[in-house]
Amino acid sequence: xxASAGPEIERLIxxxxxxxxxxxxxxxxxxLALLKRRDQLLEPLSAALLEAKxxxxxxxxxxxLDSRDPCQVCSDPERxxxxxxxxxxxGALWALERGGAYKGLYHVLGGLLSALDGVGPETLRVRExxxxxxxxxxxxxxxxxxxxxQTTAHYxxxxxxxxxxxxxMLARGLPVGGELDWLDDGTIAQALRARRPA
Amino acid sequence: xxASAGPEIERLIxxxxxxxxxxxxxxxxxxLALLKRRDQLLEPLSAALLEAKxxxxxxxxxxxLDSRDPCQVCSDPERxxxxxxxxxxxGALWALERGGAYKGLYHVLGGLLSALDGVGPETLRVRExxxxxxxxxxxxxxxxxxxxxQTTAHYxxxxxxxxxxxxxMLARGLPVGGELDWLDDGTIAQALRARRPA
Lengths: 198, 198
Hints:
Oligomer: homodimer
Mean pLDDT of chain A: 91
Number of strands of chain A: 6
Number of domains of chain A: 2
Helix content of chain A: 25-40%
């Protein structure tokens, strides 16, 4: 804690420490940086937070966060509307967009099925996904390579089987720059099983 | 970047990325966390920022950040007023307060002398320090063990020499839990030079 620096600083540090990536120590450093640069950083950040709160919404179609609804991707006429990529969260969507290789639409599930955390299909945006399969030819499941990710993928595969869309998932294998020495056994086994002609 | 998520999200991420300890990637994660927890996190953080901006000031006596002026330490009758600990920045003051071992007053310099960065004595709170030496018996220089820290310590020693106060500095040596294997040569050499009877 900042000891005797008053309740306002304590509160600011406490809230900053709740952000992912910031612990108590870095939250203190961030609070100091903000208090030192009031006009250039503290005030604009406060304003940006309120503006984001007021304007940013979940896209009614795909669930992405955007100040437009439908979002930029959903309303882009250049996008391939026969392709939907299913992601767990908006962060994954952003990562795919940064890659720049994907030109279809998205569907944000809002989580993964999890028996442990008691997350059932009704809390995810599954119904919304099934309702979108009309003109869609392929659904790409871009879910994480975890137990919950794979459980969710299997569940979605079952629910989508009747719709007749092609179902694919992201390839598994060596990441770019991946040295075999440093990779876990699971990834190496996957890459070996999925080997292809050189 | 968050690609096509709209200018509000971009601006929020850009400002978060300016905080120490947050890079572009963690700023995106922080922005997502804030947008997911609007009422519990985003709104309180925005309010806490504005409140801190409005209420937190530099203490007129020692330069610490506080919502009271003079600050909690300066106005605490339990504190030893014959002792002033000189620190570079408020972060160092907080660190000493967390330690809980120091019961005197502080003086925040607001930086260090630096020929490289063009920081001269007139930009630091040196004059304010000299003006406080009236009832003071000892000034502890708690400055970092860097070139600039030591330059500043030497400069302050010279300026304070006429006042007749005792001048001390923090001990150098092994940190608590420090294994010799992992310490840099400089620290080991210092600890050896400053060795004392066991």
